[in-house]
Amino acid sequence: MYRHNFNLFNIFEESKMSRSKSVILDTDTANETDDQFAVAYAMLADDIDLKALCAAPCYDEQGVSHSMYRCYDEMKKIRDMCDPEGKKNVPCYHGSESYMKNMVTPVVSEAAENIVRICRESKDMVYIAVIGCFTNVASAILMDPSIIEKAVVVLIGSNPYSNGHANEYNLEQDRNAAKVIFECGIPLVIIPAAGVTEKLYTTTAELEYYLRDKAGEIGNYLCDLVNRVESAPITEDGERHSKIRIIWDIASIAFVRNATDFFETEEVDRRTVDLQGNWQYFDKEARVIMVKRCERDKIYSDLFTLLQKKTV
Prior knowledge:
two-stranded antiparallel ribbon, 10 strands
C-alpha cells in the first residue's frame, strides 16, 4: 500500500513516469468555460486513470445546491462526448450542497465519500485535482484524515505568497475548506491565479483553427461554448473577432501529465489563510510546491494535439 513520505521530489518523479496516474477531478464544470476543457483533457489523456469526476458547488443566484447540480449535469455531458461508448467507465458524483460552516464539520456528500473510498483502495499515489471550490476535498479529509497518506492535492486557486492575500474565485467561496487543506499536512501543489494560470489565455480564433471540425463533437462544443461567452468570432455581417479567453483549469491536468516540462516550480514553506483570505505563516519547516510559471504554448500544444488525436 502506498504511503507518501512527503518528499516532494517523488511528486515530480511520478509525473514523469509513462504509466497512468490515478486522478480524481473535482470541478465546478458549469461555472464558466475552463472546466470543460480540463474535463476533456483528463478524459482523453492516456497517462491519466480518471477515477472520478466530482461536482463542486459555485456561486449561483439560485443557491449553492442548485449550482452543484448544474455542474454535475455539465460534467456528465463532457464525459459522454469524450467517451460516448462508456469504455473508460468514469463515474460522476454529486458534491457538496453547501459550504463548510467551520473547520471541523465536513459537508457529507457522494463526492466526499468516494474521494475517501478511492484513496483508501488505491495502491498508488492519487492526484486530487481541485479546480473549483475546496469543499468536497476538505470534507473528505475531515471524514478520514488517513487519506493524506495516499493523495496529493493539485490546487487551482489562491495567489502567490508575495501578493499578501490568497483571494480568488475558488478559494474565497469556502475559506474554512481552504484552511483545512492548507493545514492538514496533505502533500500540496499550488497553482496560483496571479502570474501563472492567468497566462493560459487563448483566443476564439485559435480555438476555431485547432478544434472546429478537427476534434469531433467535443471540439465543436468547446468552440461554441467560448463563442457564446465571448461572442461569435464571425458575426452575421461577416466581421471577424478574436477575443482573449483564459482557460485556467487545464493547468491541473497539465501538471499531472508533465510537471517538469510544463511548469517552473519552487518549494516554499507551508502557509494557511485567515478568514479574510490573507496568507498567514503556518509551518516554516513543512514544504509545498508553488508553481511560479507555466509554459503556455507547450500546454496548449499538448491539449490541441490530444483533442485532435483522440476524437477524429
